[in-house]
Specification:
mainly alpha; Arc Repressor Mutant, subunit A; Four Helix Bundle (Hemerythrin (Met), subunit A); 2 domains; three-stranded antiparallel beta sheet; 3 strands; 4% strand; elongated; DNA-binding
Amino acid sequence: MPPDQILTGQAAVAPAAVPAAVKPPRASQRGTTAAAAIYRDLRADIVSLARKPGDPIVEKLVAEAFGVSRTPVREAVLRLADEGLVEVFPQSGTFVARIPIAALPEANLIRKTLEQATVRFAAERATRSQVAALQANLERQREVDASGCADGFHQADEAFHALIADIAGYPGFWPITQQVKVQIDRCRHMTLPYPGRLATVIAEHEAIVAAIADHDPDRAVKALGDHIDGLLLTIDDMRHATPLYFSPAEALT
């Protein structure tokens, strides 16, 4: 049964003004644009844990916040349901889905396979300026670690992995990887505030960059694999610390 919780609501977002000289879009276009914006914002809230597993999503409140009817909200919710991020109970409401613990090992393996392929190519092909870009990103990670900004670190982390795909010459791998790891990202946001966690991730990233700079593909592949596997072990610890955030399952294997 879904939890009996009450949404506290969120600040209204005023729609952008339309210049007088610009013809307003047709109703169907407005609906599509609104649905995309609502989907994007709800998804970001769910992945970042601003909306926690089990929290209700009240369509009326979301519609009021965006100044739209419930139709684009329902469209956004259906997309999120397809991704496994929300659950819809016809007689009870819509709730942020719990993290499916049983699905994480497969998602992690797919991610690992994709990223090890790109890091191998990156180690073979990286130019000096590209290595410098990775090192600059590492410095950004250290800065946000020092500031204690977990969200800023997550953004720098994402940019780091995207940059590796770019250097490899296969930037299209990264959007696929992002889709695969959406449930893992929810767990990552849980782990980042833990003392010492960011320093550990930075050290793992430094090992990856060092291997790329040395044009050592095998070492780069191993360093990235160790980095991703380490996250899975941390997630298992988080499951025991916050069991209500996860769907019931056996321990990670």
